[in-house]
Amino acid sequence: MRSVGMWWRLRRAAISLFGSLDGLADTVACAHWLSPPRMTNWLVYAKPPLGGPELVLAYLSRYPHRIAISNNRLVRADANTSAFRWKDYRIKSGDRMAVMYLDAREFIRGF
Question: Mind listing the pLDDT tens digit for each residue in 78-90?
Answer without folding.
Answer: 889 999 999 888 8
